[in-house]
Amino acid sequence: MQLFKNKYWQLLMSPFSILYKLVMQFRNHLYDIEYKAVFHFNTKVISVGNLSMGGTGKTPFVEYILRFLIEKGYSNKVATLSRGYGRKTKGFRIANNEDSPKTVGDEPFQIYQKFRNEAVVSVGEDRVLAIPSIIYEHPENEIIVLDDAYQHRSVKPNFSILLTDFSSLFYDDYVLPSGTLRESRKGAKRADVVIVTKCPLDLGKTEQEKIKERIEKYSDKEVFFTSVKYEKTVATIAGSEAGRRIVLVTGIAQAQKFKEYLTEQGFDIIKHFDFADHHNFTSKELEEIQKLANRENADILTTEKDWVRLVSFPEISKSIQNKLFYIPIMVQFLGDEKSFHQILEDSIIRAK
User: Fold this and answer.
1) Is 227 known to sit in a ligand binding site?
2) In this model, does residue 300 exceed pLDDT 70?
3) What is the pLDDT of residue 316?
4) 55 marked ligand binding residue
5) What mean pLDDT is predicted for residues 5-13?
6) How many CA atoms lie within 13 A of 297 on its CB side?
7) Which among 130, 150, 234, 294 would be 20 to 30 A from 21, CA to CA?
């Protein structure tokens, strides 16, 4: 991501960014006037997405929405739909007990493991075809949560949530390839609410107001601030406890904050295997990680998203499973959580 912040790169790529921006603006205009088909569904649709490439915390927020809806009485009446990035399959698919990260993608599989008894978890590249399939197979369903769907204009959501990372706010970013934006900043006007994610826990009201003022140039909707809440370390084998000496393994968009958190918590990181987002681990890499952990008498600590991929490998032997741990993350609002809940509830009621 540092490349996109280089001024020389931005200047060099600016002609291409202007062209890309114009193409995307024309595309959005065609959807706005419904020259390109826009599909409306009787089932309520909530969209979670962003303007930029990279991790803005979409999966934790989808999980947050699911928990809220389930608590409000929508257990077994809600579904999630994502593209299933990194999976080896194609087309529409509803996750079941035979699936793995390879068949549905790591993030949908992570969601499935948590919500399999309370929600339908599905994947499909074509949302227009996938939504009727969900409705047909699960007629009891009342709400579908679309993951990473902000640019999927062919489906009209009842409620659209725009996420923007505190460390890379969309109003300071540029359209590809100069920056990481998939469309211009003006795209924020389509959102029903804007969530600034991954904020410092001590982010003050004054700084929040400054950010709100900048966002209000592009959106007149409510702005909320959230942070990452790290949960307790989870063991692969129940009863195991993580030691302080660890080998850190990550395949996420921004691993530095996670690494900093672990250091603050007193973990001694022997080595950090820092892979790209959605990295497909190889047998050779797993062997290297396990050998280092054994040699250094260290445990292996990873993220939840990486953990679901790692444990699907037969190479992760029982002898190493008692050394493998992960830390789940949750969304934590910095105030005004009840206001967000009310806005979301109102959107659901209005859509009935």
Assistant:
1) no
2) yes
3) 65
4) yes
5) 76
6) 0
7) 130
266 annotated to bind ligand = no
Average pLDDT value for residue range 114-122: 97
Q: How many domains does the chain have?
A: 2
pLDDT of res. 315: 63
Angle, alpha carbons 207-339-57 (nearest 5°): 65
Same domain, residue pair 122 and 186: yes
Same domain, 65 and 168: yes
DSSP string, 212-223: HHHHTTT--S-E
pTM of the model: 0.92
Do 23 and 62 belong together in one domain?
A: yes
CATH for 302: 3.40.50
Q: Are residues 190 and 316 in the same domain?
A: no
Q: Which amino acid is at 215?
A: I
52 known member of a binding site: yes
* Residues 299, 179 share a domain: no
Same domain, residue pair 43 and 67: yes
List the structure tokens of 220. 């007149």
Residues 208 and 246 occupy one common structural domain: no
Report d(CA 79, CA 319) in Å as an integer.
37
Q: Is 82 annotated as a binding residue?
A: no
DSSP H or E stretch at residue 329: strand 329-333
Cα dihedral 41, 44, 50, 55 sign: negative
Q: Which two tokens stand for residue 336?
A: 């005004």
Q: Is 339 annotated as a binding residue?
A: no
- Flag whether 1 is marked binding: no
Tell me if 197 is assigned to a ligand binding site. Answer: no
Taking only the tens place, the pLDDT of each residue in 202-250 is 999 999 999 999 999 999 999 999 999 999 999 988 878 889 999 999 9
CB 161 within 8 A of CB 46: yes
* Domain residue limits at 244: 234-327
Biggest alpha carbon–alpha carbon distance for the chain: 63
What value does the mean pLDDT of the chain take?
A: 92
Do 157 and 257 belong to one domain? no
Are 83 and 130 in contact by the 8 Å Cβ rule? The answer is no
Q: What is the pLDDT of residue 77?
A: 97
